[in-house]
């Protein structure tokens, strides 16, 4: 079964997304934006450790290996973990636009089961922008770019101000991230254009 709800269809006045001139070059790894991020942070023992790199235009390519800690059914990835991998990959797209944005809606199709040890190969692309709304889509394949599709998602991200994180995040982590002496790391923790 497949389908997309009407809120994920760009309106008639939507425009094509524009890659920021300072976006990383195609093939360049994005690295982790925040070490405690469940999706990409190295400090998360059971996190996804997802590695994303810039693609052409407004595309991202990412890979993550399903670990034993990611199981739902015996030997198979938990659906929520797969949705997290899609969310993280889609979220990384905003780095190409240099827009701070959070997921408002994420619709996921689980097409086939994903065994532990699988390398999930993800491709995501921004499809349209309408004001604060950023529309995007992603696909996850088993093993590599020619592998069978296991998951796919459509998403709506909403542009926010950095205050979104400062006002809502737990004080302890906000203070730690803001007092990081590394300016780039400080900026990326909040997904801000450095
Ligand atoms: C390398 C480093 C990269 C960085 C890599 C980073 C990866 C990070 C991980 C991935 C990203 C995440 O998981 S982010 C974390 C998960 N997401 C969140 O925590 C977001 C929680 N939700 C919120 O804070 C809020 O609901 C917002 C910000 C999404 C929206 O609130 P708002 O700003 O007040 O906007 P609001 O006025 O309600 O709505 C504005 C317009 O958007 C529409 N809209 C709002 N929400 C929705 C929705 N869920 N579905 C449909 N439409 C919606 C409204 O109808 C309205 O349309 P109209 O009337 O104007 O037409």
Q: How many structural domains?
A: 1
CATH topological fold name: Thiol Ester Dehydrase, Chain A
CATH superfamily: Hotdog Thioesterase
SS elements, strand count = 6
CATH class: Alpha Beta
Helix content: 10-25%
Number of helical regions: 4
CATH architecture: Roll
The structural class is alpha+beta
Biggest sheet strand order reads 1-2-4-5-6-3
List of distinct ligands in this structure? dodecyl-COA
What is the radius of gyration?
16 Å
Are there runs of 5+ residues with pLDDT below 50, and where?
Answer: none
Report the sheet with the most strands, covering strand number, pairing sense and barrel closure: 6 strands, antiparallel
Integer average pLDDT: 94
N- to C-terminal separation?
42 Å
Q: Could you state the order of secondary-structure elements as H and E?
A: EEHEEEEHHH
Beta-strand content: 25-35%
Shape: globular
Tell me about this structure.
With 194 residues, this protein is of the alpha+beta class. The chain has one domain: Thiol Ester Dehydrase, Chain A (Roll), CATH 3.10.129.10. Helix content is 21%, strand content 28%. It has four helices and six strands; from the N terminus they run E-E-H-E-E-E-E-H-H-H. It has helices at residues 79-97, 163-168, 171-178, 183-189, and strands at residues 51-54, 59-65, 101-110, 119-130, 133-142, 149-159. Strands 1-2-4-5-6-3 form a six-stranded antiparallel sheet, with helices on one face. Strand 5 (133-142) and strand 6 (149-159) form a beta hairpin. The longest helix has 19 residues, at 79-97. The protein is globular. The relative contact order is 0.18. The mean pLDDT is 94. Bound molecules: dodecyl-COA. Dodecyl-COA is lined by residues 7, 30, 33, 39, 87-88, 91-92, 95, 102-105, 133, 156, 158, 160, 188, 191.
């Amino acid at each position: 079964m497949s389908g997309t709800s009407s809120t994920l269809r760009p309106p008639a006045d939507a425009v094509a997304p524009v890659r920021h001139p300072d976006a990383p070059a195609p093939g360049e790894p994005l690295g982790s934006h925040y070490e405690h991020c469940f999706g990409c942070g190295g400090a998360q023992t059971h996190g996804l450790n997802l590695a994303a790199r810039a693609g052409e235009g407004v595309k991202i390519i990412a890979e993550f290996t399903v670990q034993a800690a990611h199981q739902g059914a015996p030997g198979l990835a938990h659906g929520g973990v797969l949705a997290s991998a899609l969310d993280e990959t889609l979220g990384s797209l905003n780095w190409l636009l240099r827009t701070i944005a959070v997921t408002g809606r994420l619709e996921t199709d689980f097409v086939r089961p994903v065994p532990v040890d699988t390398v999930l190969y993800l491709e995501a692309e921004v499809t349209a922008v309408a004001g604060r709304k950023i529309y995007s889509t992603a696909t996850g394949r088993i093993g590599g770019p020619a592998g069978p599709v296991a998951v796919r998602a459509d998403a709506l991200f909403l542009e926010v101000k950095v205050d979104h994180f400062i006002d809502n995040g737990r004080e302890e982590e906000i203070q730690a991230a803001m007092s990081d002496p590394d300016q780039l790391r400080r900026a990326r923790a909040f997904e801000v254009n450095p």
